[in-house]
């Protein structure tokens, strides 16, 4: 498959070539990445160590934080290091690994968001059957299916990337390797490849987004029959989920559901959902969830007290 490939490495132009602006990029994205690691680490540790989080919602939130951490890690460290370097080259193999990991954890996050919407639908619309439907075994199987689905999606992306012949230009006008900018470097017509890309990534993003919106419309409509206190609690949870869904899917749909054309805003939009969203997700869930905030406060205050006693 790679016999006609004359390119062994790519040059990433990054967000900017200006040395002064590169320092700003390094500072801000290092800050964002460390914030992402810290915020998601706190959620992961809190859910794993606190007995209060025994419901499926927090089981899925754990995997959302895990996917955010891995998704950001597949992109941010390389971007931060490149801000220091004058010539930002990435080998062909490293580029393919980034394509795979980027799509794998991004797709896994999409499936987890769908599972979280299903969990909220069952909890609000069928509360009497909640524990029967959302059993631990069922939740574990659903997460396993999400892993497999993400893997299949990523393998399709890798197959498309490896089927592209690269004969000359190797400069990628971006800060990461993914198929859209790679299509511009190939020495063959990419109409079919772009069609396959849209039918794969584009359809997954669009269909998942519409499914999620439809599910939350049904959930919000069903809240009419709940008490005022029940409505308030359910609304708080659902609004958090809807904000995360819009922030993640909006940029994805813009990038993946159009022909192989590039716009000047593409880099910043990609930055938003690859670097910004993994940081915003834990902040949105913790700031709007009193139960998570209280458990975090209790857990880490106990930790500090036990450390002081030693």
Q: Explain this structure to me?
A:
This protein is mostly helical and 310 residues long. Helix content is 74%, strand content 3%. The chain is built from 11 helices and 3 strands. A 3-stranded mixed sheet has the order 2-1-3. Helix 2 (56-73) packs antiparallel against helix 10. The mean pLDDT is 83.
Quantity of strands, as a count: 3
Structural class: mainly alpha
- By DSSP (H or I, 4+ residues per run), the number of helices equals 11
Strand content: under 5%
Low-confidence stretches: none
Order of helices and strands: EHHHEHHHEHHHHH
User: Helicity level, as a percent range?
Assistant: over 70%
Mean pLDDT: 83
Oligomer: single chain
Q: Report the principal-axis shape.
A: globular
Q: How would you sum up this structure in a few lines?
A:
74% of the residues lie in helices and 3% in strands. The protein has helices at 19-49, 56-73, 76-82, 92-125, 130-133, 136-162, 179-183, 191-222, 228-256, 266-287, 290-309, and strands at residues 9-12, 89-91, 171-172.
Which characteristics define this entry?
3% strand; single chain; 310 residues; mainly alpha
Present the secondary structure layout.
Layout: E1 9-12, H1 19-49, H2 56-73, H3 76-82, E2 89-91, H4 92-125, H5 130-133, H6 136-162, E3 171-172, H7 179-183, H8 191-222, H9 228-256, H10 266-287, H11 290-309
Parallel strand pairs: 1-3
Antiparallel strand pairs: 1-2
């Amino acid at each position: 498959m790679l016999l006609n490939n004359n390119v062994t490495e790519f040059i990433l132009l990054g967000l900017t070539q200006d040395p002064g602006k590169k320092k700003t990029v390094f500072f801000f994205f290092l800050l964002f990445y460390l914030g992402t690691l810290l915020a998601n680490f706190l959620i992961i540790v809190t859910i794993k160590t606190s007995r209060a989080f025994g419901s499926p919602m927090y089981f899925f939130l754990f995997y959302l934080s895990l996917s955010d951490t891995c998704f950001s890690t597949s992109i941010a460290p390389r971007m931060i290091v490149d801000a220091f370097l004058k010539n930002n080259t990435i080998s062909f193999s490293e580029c393919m690994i980034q394509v795979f990991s980027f799509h794998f954890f991004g797709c896994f996050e999409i499936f987890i968001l769908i599972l979280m919407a299903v969990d909220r639908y069952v909890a609000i619309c069928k509360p009497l059957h909640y524990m029967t439907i959302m059993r631990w075994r069922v939740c574990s199987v659903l997460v396993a299916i999400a892993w497999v689905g993400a893997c299949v999606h990523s393998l399709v992306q890798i197959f498309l990337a490896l089927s592209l012949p690269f004969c000359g230009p190797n400069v990628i006008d971006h800060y990461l390797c993914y198929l859209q900018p790679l299509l511009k470097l190939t020495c063959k017509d990419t109409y079919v490849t772009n069609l396959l890309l849209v039918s794969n990534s584009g359809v997954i993003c669009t269909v998942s987004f519409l499914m999620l919106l439809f599910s939350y419309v049904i959930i919000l409509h069903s809240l009419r029959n709940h008490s005022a206190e029940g409505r308030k609690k359910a609304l708080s949870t659902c609004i958090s989920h809807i904000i995360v869904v819009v922030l993640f899917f909006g940029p994805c749909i813009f990038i993946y559901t159009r022909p192989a054309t590039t716009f000047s805003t593409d880099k910043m939009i990609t930055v938003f959902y690859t670097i910004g969203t993994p940081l915003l997700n834990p902040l949105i869930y913790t700031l709007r969830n009193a139960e998570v905030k209280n458990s975090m406060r209790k857990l880490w205050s106990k930790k500090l007290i036990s450390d002081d006693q030693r």
